[in-house]
Amino acid sequence: MDVTFICPNCKQELEADTSLAGTQIQCPSCNHTMTIPEPDVHNVKIMNPNTSSAAARAEKHFSVPVHDGPSEILIKKPVKKEEIPADGKRHLRTKTIRRVDCIEVGHDRFDEVVSKFLDKIGDENLVSLSTVGYTYIDIGSQKLLTDFGVLILYRAYSSPASATAG
User: Fold this and answer.
1) pTM above 0.70, yes or no
2) Please, which residues have CB within 8 angstroms of residue 97's CB and are 6 or more apart in sequence?
3) N or C: more exposed end of the chain, with fewer CB within 10 A?
4) What is the pLDDT of residues 13-45, one digit of tens each?
5) What dihedral angle (degrees, nearest 10) is formed by the CA atoms of 140, 141, 142, 147?
6) Is 112 a domain residue?
7) Can you tell me whether residue 121 is helix, strand or coil?
């Protein structure tokens, strides 16, 4: 346990182990010779070393905002509105997702990409999902590699421009 005391000459706050009580020291700030006092047994405070710094003793006033309802959305995503063609019908569309196109920096994100696309179109618009196997020539190694992917058939509104651009 430590005893805290003040230099009578320069008023510097000092701290020493209680086992050093009664010994003479020189103040590290002003070199004044003084005796380390005995600890006051009636006013003993056990201090956490993390709370003994001046910054920890500074009084802080924090306020926490209170909301009656849900908190405000700070980042708003734009809502995509599907273009509804004049006939108001959904047309069949296809999407092929190859596993090789979903590999980023050595991480296979195929499942994530497929799941995100399926969430985007919704269960009610999914017609079929089929696995496909294919081979391709790897540009770097010039080898014929086998890979897989999915072919997704779904219903969606399509404008005449996107139907021909396909």
Assistant:
1) no
2) 110, 113, 114, 117, 149, 150, 152
3) C
4) 888 888 888 889 998 888 999 998 888 766 555
5) -90
6) yes
7) helix
